TrEMBL record, chain A:
<keyword id="KW-0285">Flavoprotein</keyword>
<feature type="domain" description="4Fe-4S ferredoxin-type">
    <location>
        <begin position="34"/>
        <end position="64"/>
    </location>
</feature>
<dbReference type="InterPro" id="IPR009051">
    <property type="entry name" value="Helical_ferredxn"/>
</dbReference>
<comment type="function">
    <text>Involved in pyrimidine base degradation. Catalyzes physiologically the reduction of uracil to 5,6-dihydrouracil (DHU) by using NADH as a specific cosubstrate. It also catalyzes the reverse reaction and the reduction of thymine to 5,6-dihydrothymine (DHT).</text>
</comment>
<dbReference type="GO" id="GO:0004159">
    <property type="term" value="F:dihydropyrimidine dehydrogenase (NAD+) activity"/>
</dbReference>
<keyword id="KW-0288">FMN</keyword>
<dbReference type="InterPro" id="IPR036188">
    <property type="entry name" value="FAD/NAD-bd_sf"/>
</dbReference>
<dbReference type="InterPro" id="IPR028261">
    <property type="entry name" value="DPD_II"/>
</dbReference>
<dbReference type="GO" id="GO:0051536">
    <property type="term" value="F:iron-sulfur cluster binding"/>
</dbReference>
Automatic annotation (TrEMBL), chain B:
<dbReference type="InterPro" id="IPR005720">
    <property type="entry name" value="Dihydroorotate_DH_cat"/>
</dbReference>
<dbReference type="Pfam" id="PF14697">
    <property type="entry name" value="Fer4_21"/>
</dbReference>
<dbReference type="Pfam" id="PF01180">
    <property type="entry name" value="DHO_dh"/>
</dbReference>
<dbReference type="GO" id="GO:0004159">
    <property type="term" value="F:dihydropyrimidine dehydrogenase (NAD+) activity"/>
</dbReference>
<comment type="subunit">
    <text>Heterotetramer of 2 PreA and 2 PreT subunits.</text>
</comment>
<feature type="domain" description="4Fe-4S ferredoxin-type">
    <location>
        <begin position="372"/>
        <end position="402"/>
    </location>
</feature>
<keyword id="KW-0560">Oxidoreductase</keyword>
<dbReference type="InterPro" id="IPR017896">
    <property type="entry name" value="4Fe4S_Fe-S-bd"/>
</dbReference>
<dbReference type="GO" id="GO:0051536">
    <property type="term" value="F:iron-sulfur cluster binding"/>
</dbReference>
Length: 452, 437
């Protein structure tokens, strides 16, 4: 019986070259001009529009859509960038179905919201194809210096806005490329043609931003030193730790952190070289779980199962993402938690899942019933954590609660000259757009502090 | 099924839908296709005399578009037929011979000389066409040569030419009026005085549809220049409706048959014109937009509506709305209506609020108890209907008449059951009052 799994069925090149290209093409291709005009005409130009209130960055959506409908795409994009300099990426990755489009009066009226996300992409793509600089004009240099740690959405947003105000920014990132999750985390089919890198160039075009890559906080980059050297510090360091399942056998080959695999996938120049299992089990219920499940399926895996310990309505992945998984052929198995990892010759061969149920007091409990799924690969997508040791080195420690940095409404930490935003702060929504807002709000607060 | 057969100034057609004199009726090929499609009649594109006119060789049309490029208004600078007169006459004769049950009227435009009219009328009579329509309407090109609207803008010329036509022809004469005048009743009265059997209106409206901001020239642009053209299509319908009603209401022309033209696109448009006194309906832009097949919808739609409304023939509803066309001074000032928003239908777009707040009477809320909520404030509502018009949801906002005897929250006065208009209002310095003694 062991012969079948004597070697794991993990192989690269399961598909033809053109199939990779097709599978990883743009999820929502750019609207054609006429499509955009027709869609823009559907907007009612609501007063005190619910979509604006639902947008974490408060983009004036009715105005930018009206500008599209009058043929002023550049002005439309300017309206978007005014509030959200990463409007291009947000147009691709925002779960609009739970933000602006959920509250669109047309969604309420007829179940068909205006395609705000796709219109936003239409405008921002138009701008970024036509112009190579951000629409902002940089203020004269103030001579003040600001360190921005982490070049993900929060850091990029903050760096840009701080630079607009004339301060000099040094933007640090641990990885060789800027962009954070935009570059290393988001599913490929949401950001094709190297968009994340192009957007970084667009943001840096404001000027006044010095980039230092290969610098990780806690490894040669010390918060106390940054505070001593710079007038203000912004931390957009994300969550670099990965939760483990806490199971025996977790160290077996092909039991992988989903974020690592996605990062490899995003950086791969040839998807045909990426090994993928035939039978795959993903543990988790968030966007990362869906991203890894869908993408391994697109890489040619046969059976991909997302195992989630509660009901589908409790999954953090949006309903749209769940449908995307299911229509991509991914099975979502609910009420099942990991119990044990089985392996042979040092690699995983199956996973045992225990059926779960909610007790009367709403707690989750295993029922004792075990389901065994064959697995050549098991992906862990059970959340990331703030590596608090990275923050060490400061004399006065930053206040951290529930594993996240505590910030004020202005995104100021307990240290008066340190601000923070994005996934690393408490109360965050794990959304790109929320990170962008954090960076923007923090930048304005930093500017006020430095101008005082 | 309702009887759609129509007799207009003695001209019979199986239905009241005619194609107006325009490009769709320029030659036998098109007209035969129209008859095959079911059109009740056509007015053949305007014939002239002498050498045929020439048209521009660049764009002849320009347009105004609505959502999804819906064509709302069409502008043209095409002239009368540019084909030889004898070719047209030969084709008219043949088509009439082949389609005896359809109306075939010939549009004419020749210089204001009696001999010219006499000659061409004789030629048309020989084709056995059913009647003539005098084109006193074209606002571009021909008007620069003293024809078309240049005639239609001078009532004396209308009367003179109409009289010649009645004198030199046994055919019914329909006078086509230009809307490019101040008071449509004057040319209609002139046509009537000249003995016209009917008037048809409206011809196209002087217009420039747009400006090319790169070329800095009106569109459509011909080698860098543009000229005003004639505007038609759905956008002109309200103007045409009013002009038809004006003539139908005018005691001087009351009863004069009217052939309605102006943005008629559906059976409903046609029925509206007929309710205002038109005896039939002429169509052009809708056919030029969608092709001849639309007449099927018009025939069936009108028939179904007549069945539903209990009309067995067209004559039963022609002119039925004319008595209700009033003047402002005779509207009942004691009638008080308030807007009412159906909260179940409201989608909370807020357009009613902002329209009322910014541009009218501050009579609609936008926030109630901290939530977006749109409700009419009766104390402020003057019943203007703007909210109804800007609301994107049909029937969500309605105007509700207040019952007599109740108190209008805005004026704090009792709603009077009686009728009272401006002519008797105390604020009117000209009001008719009872003698003091």
């Amino acid at each position: 019986m062991t012969e079948l799994n004597a070697t794991p069925d993990v192989a690269a090149g399961r598909l033809k070259t053109e199939e990779y290209a097709d599978n990883f093409s743009d999820l929502h291709p750019l609207l054609e001009p006429h499509e955009a005009y027709v869609e823009a005409d559907r907007c009612y130009f609501c007063y005190d529009a619910p979509c604006v209130q639902a947008c974490p960055t408060s983009i004036d959506i009715p105005l930018f859509i009206r500008q599209i409908s009058t043929g002023n795409e550049i002005g439309s994009a300017r309206t978007i960038f005014d509030q959200n300099i990463l409007g291009g990426m947000c147009a691709r990755v925002c779960p609009t179905e739970t933000l602006c489009e959920q509250v669109c009066v047309r969604e309420v009226a007829e179940g068909k919201p205006v395609k705000i996300g796709q219109l936003q992409r239409y405008a921002t793509d138009h701008f970024m194809n036509a112009r190579d600089k951000t629409p902002f004009e940089r203020a004269p240099s103030t001579g003040k210096k600001v360190a921005v740690v982490g070049a993900g959405p929060a850091g990029l947003s903050c760096a840009h806005r701080v630079a607009v105000h004339g301060h000099d920014v040094t933007l640090f990132d641990a990885r060789p490329k800027l962009g954070g999750l935009n570059e290393y985390g988001i599913a490929s089919y949401k950001s094709v043609d190297d968009f994340a890198a192009r957007e970084v160039d667009f943001i840096l075009s404001i000027g006044g931003i010095t980039v230092e890559t290969g610098k990780r906080l806690g490894e040669g980059l010390d918060l106390a030193e940054l505070r001593a050297t710079y007038d203000a510090v912004f931390l957009g360091i994300g969550l670099s730790g990965v939760n483990s399942l806490g199971l025996e056998g977790e160290d077996k080959d092909n039991v992988i952190d989903a974020v690592d695999y996605i990062s490899d996938l995003r950086q791969s120049q040839d998807l045909g070289t990426l090994p993928v299992g035939r039978n795959i089990v993903v543990i988790g219920g968030g966007m990362t779980a869906v991203d890894i499940a869908v993408q391994t399926k697109l890489l040619g895996a046969d059976e991909v199962t997302i195992a989630y310990r509660r009901g589908q309505e409790r999954m953090n992945a949006s309903e749209y993402e769940q449908h995307l998984a299911q229509t991509s052929g991914v099975r979502i198995l609910t009420w099942a938690q990991p119990h044990a990892i089985k392996g042979e010759n040092g690699h995983v061969s199956a996973i045992e899942l225990e059926r779960t149920a909610e007790t009367e007091d709403g707690k989750l409990a295993g029922t004792g019933e075990i389901v065994t799924l064959p697995a050549d690969m098991v992906f862990k997508a059970v959340g990331q954590t703030l590596v608090q040791s990275d923050l060490n080195g400061t004399v006065a420690p930053i206040t951290v609660e529930r594993g996240r940095i505590v910030v004020s409404d202005e995104r100021q930490t307990s240290l008066p000259d340190v601000w923070a935003g994005g996934d690393c702060v408490l109360g965050g929504e794990d959304l790109t757009v929320a990170a962008v807002e954090d960076g923007k709000v923090a930048a304005e607060s930093i500017n006020r502090a430095l101008s005082a | 099924m309702a009887d759609l057969r129509n007799t207009f100034v003695g001209i019979k057609s199986p239905n009241p839908f005619w194609l107006a004199s325009a490009p769709p009726t320029d030659k036998a090929y098109n007209v035969v296709r129209a008859f095959e499609a079911g059109w009740g009649g056509v007015v053949w594109k305007t014939l002239g005399d002498g050498d045929p006119v020439v048209n521009v060789n660049g764009p002849r049309y320009g347009a105004i578009h609505g959502k999804d490029r819906q064509l709302l208004g069409l502008n043209n600078i095409e002239l009368i037929t540019d084909r030889p007169l004898e070719v047209n006459l030969r084709e008219i004769k043949q088509v009439k011979r082949d389609w005896k049950d359809r109306a075939l009227v010939v549009s004419l435009m020749v210089p204001c000389e009696e001999e010219n009219w006499k000659t061409i009328l004789k030629q048309v009579e020989d084709t056995e066409a059913d009647g003539v329509e005098l084109n006193f309407g074209c606002p571009h090109g021909m008007s620069e040569r003293g024809m078309g609207s240049a005639v239609g803008q001078v009532p004396e010329y209308i009367e003179m030419v109409t009289r010649w036509c009645k004198q030199h022809s046994r055919m019914p004469v329909i006078v086509k009026l230009t809307p490019n005048i101040t008071d449509i009743r004057k040319p209609a009265q002139a046509a009537h005085a000249g003995g016209a059997d009917a008037v048809s209106l409206i011809n196209t409206i002087n217009s420039i549809v747009g400006v090319d901001l790169d070329a800095m020239a009106p569109t459509p642009t011909i080698d860098g220049k543009g000229a005003h053209g004639g505007y038609c299509g759905p956008a002109v319908k309200p103007i045409a409706l009013n002009m038809v009603a004006e003539i139908a209401r005018d005691p001087a022309t009351h009863g004069l048959p009217i052939s309605a033209i102006g943005g008629i696109t559906t059976w409903r448009d046609a029925a509206e014109f007929m309710a205002l006194g038109a005896g039939n309906a002429q169509v052009c832009t809708a056919a030029m937009t969608y092709g001849f097949k639309i007449v099927e919808e018009m025939i069936e739609g009108l028939s179904d509506w007549m069945d539903k409304s209990g009309y067995s023939s067209i004559d039963e509803f022609v002119g039925r709305a004319v008595p209700n066309c009033s003047d402002w001074q005779h509207l009942n000032l004691n009638y008080i209506a308030k807007a009412k928003i159906d909260q179940d239908l409201c989608i909370k777009c807020g357009r009613c609020h902002i329209a009322c707040e910014d541009t009218s009477h501050q009579a609609i809320t936008n926030m109630v108890d901290g939530a977006r909520h749109f409700e009419v404030i009766d104390e402020e509502c003057v019943g203007c209907n703007l909210c109804v018009n800007v609301c994107p949801v049909e029937d969500c906002i309605t105007m509700e008449a207040m019952n007599p005897g109740t108190i209008d929250p805005r004026t704090k006065k009792v709603v009077e059951p009686t009728y009272a208009n401006w002519t008797t209002h105390p604020n009117n310095p000209m009001s008719v009052r009872e003698a003091a003694e």
